């Protein structure tokens, strides 16, 4: 019997065509938790985007489900613990996505330091003479060149950021759970304790996943180490205590904050909206590009098919699941 796979978002057509060679594919676009819980019992595989929540109440009703393939590097929208308990494999993607996110991180940094979004708004209002105001604020406009850049998290995305920042004439510091000799040799990155990275850097970029250990890793105390500096977040919204960030900006202590992610999404109102000069804000789309979307689609399909072939993919998130349900027990292909 062919596996049945449910896709919860508008996936690129070519990866879907590949998946249909091996499985029967249905779409349920951006369902509520209740809608998904009602349907999930009929499927062997699930492909989800970061906008698709898969909480415990869905997983409890997933009687046939063997694999949840995340079309993203992050997986905090899936209850991985509940999936593991039920013997469901959870996978993620990397590759081209890492390059797209790293490129976006650099773009956010440049936009923040050079005040590009702010001045773009002025010229669209017909306020060309506002350039006199901008010129008078030249001390608040800075180049990335010559800065010390600290990167928290040196996985694939962190490394891709480091390569780009090195090419822009910066000095690289980083903190990660383990030292990365390859990137140290490649770009001269220096591994330091977390708080030392904050002290030494002019710009700090967050490229960490959301875990209990990284929750509010930038809190009110650590923001004191970032006085007069810039903070950029392309990791997850929960890495940052947003109330503390707002306070630091309001008091003139944090020079600027650029983020693609928020503690609670989607965002329609936020205190940060008031600080147009000091912030650059985007709606969680750092990985969005034609190339990255197609590459992620093929990776998500490969990951799902690998599990259904009774194999363990390199991108498996919950490694302990193999003890709950060995790979040969989920084999369908």
CATH class of the largest domain: Alpha Beta
Radius of gyration using CA atoms only: 22 Å
Which architecture name of the largest domain does CATH use?
3-Layer(aba) Sandwich
* CATH-defined superfamily of the largest domain: NAD(P)-binding Rossmann-like Domain
Spatial gap, N to C terminus: 9 Å
CATH topology of the largest domain: Rossmann fold
What is the number of helical segments per DSSP (H or I, 4+ residues)?
14
Mean pLDDT: 96
What fraction, in percent, of the residue positions are helical? 25-40%
- In percent terms, what proportion of residues is strand? 5-15%
Poorly predicted sequence stretches spanning 5 or more consecutive residues? none
Number of domain units: 2
Query: Tally of extended strands?
Result: 12
Biggest sheet statistics: 7 strands, parallel
Question: What is the 3D shape?
Answer: elongated
The secondary structure category is alpha/beta
Strand arrangement within the widest β-sheet reads 8-7-6-9-10-11-12
Organism: Thermococcus profundus
Family: Belongs to the D-isomer specific 2-hydroxyacid dehydrogenase family.
Keywords: NAD, NADP, Oxidoreductase
Protein name: Hydroxyacid dehydrogenase
From the structure above, extract its key features.
Rossmann fold; alpha/beta; seven-stranded parallel beta sheet; 333 residues; five-stranded parallel beta sheet
Descriptive overview:
This protein has 333 residues and is an alpha/beta fold. The chain folds into 2 domains: 4-92 and 291-329, 3-Layer(aba) Sandwich (Rossmann fold), CATH 3.40.50.720; 96-281, NAD(P)-binding Rossmann-like Domain (Rossmann fold). The chain is built from 14 helices and 12 strands. It has helices at residues 13-20, 33-39, 56-59, 80-85, 96-114, 116-124, 131-136, 156-167, 181-187, 194-200, 220-223, 242-250, 290-308, 321-324, and strands at residues 4-7, 24-27, 45-48, 67-70, 89-91, 148-152, 171-175, 190-191, 203-206, 230-233, 256-259, 279-281.
């Amino acid at each position: 019997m062919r596996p049945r796979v449910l896709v919860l978002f508008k996936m690129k057509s070519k990866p879907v065509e590949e998946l249909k060679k091996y499985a029967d594919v249905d779409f349920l676009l951006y369902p509520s938790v209740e809608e998904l819980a009602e349907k999930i019992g009929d499927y062997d595989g699930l492909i989800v985007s970061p906008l698709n929540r898969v909480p415990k109440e869905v997983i409890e009703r997933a009687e046939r489900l063997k694999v949840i393939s995340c079309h993203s590097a992050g997986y905090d929208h899936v209850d991985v613990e509940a999936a593991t308990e039920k013997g469901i494999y959870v996978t993620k993607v990397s590759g081209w996505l890492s390059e797209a996110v790293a490129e976006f991180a650099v773009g956010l940094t440049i936009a923040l330091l050079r005040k590009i979004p702010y001045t773009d708004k002025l010229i669209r209002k017909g306020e060309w003479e506002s350039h006199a105001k901008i010129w008078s604020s030249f001390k608040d406009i800075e180049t990335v060149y010559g800065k010390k850049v600290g990167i928290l998290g040196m996985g694939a995305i962190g490394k891709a950021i480091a390569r780009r920042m090195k090419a822009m004439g910066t000095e690289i510091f980083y903190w990660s759970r383990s030292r990365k000799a390859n990137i140290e040799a490649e770009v001269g990155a220096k591994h330091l304790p977390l708080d030392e990275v904050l002290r030494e850097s002019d710009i700090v970029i967050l490229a960490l996943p959301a875990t209990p250990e990284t929750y509010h890793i930038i809190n009110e105390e650590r923001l004191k180490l970032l006085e007069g500096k810039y903070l950029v977040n392309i990791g997850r919204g929960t890495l940052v205590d947003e109330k503390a960030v707002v306070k630091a900006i309001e008091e003139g202590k944090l020079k600027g904050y650029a983020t693609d992610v928020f503690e609670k999404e989607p965002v329609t109102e936020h205190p940060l909206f008031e600080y147009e000069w000091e912030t650059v804000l985007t709606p969680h789309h750092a990985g969005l590009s034609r190339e990255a979307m197609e590459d992620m689609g093929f990776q998500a399909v490969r990951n799902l098919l690998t599990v259904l072939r009774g194999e363990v993919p390199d991108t498996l998130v919950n490694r302990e699941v193999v003890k709950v349900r060995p790979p040969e027990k989920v084999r369908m292909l």
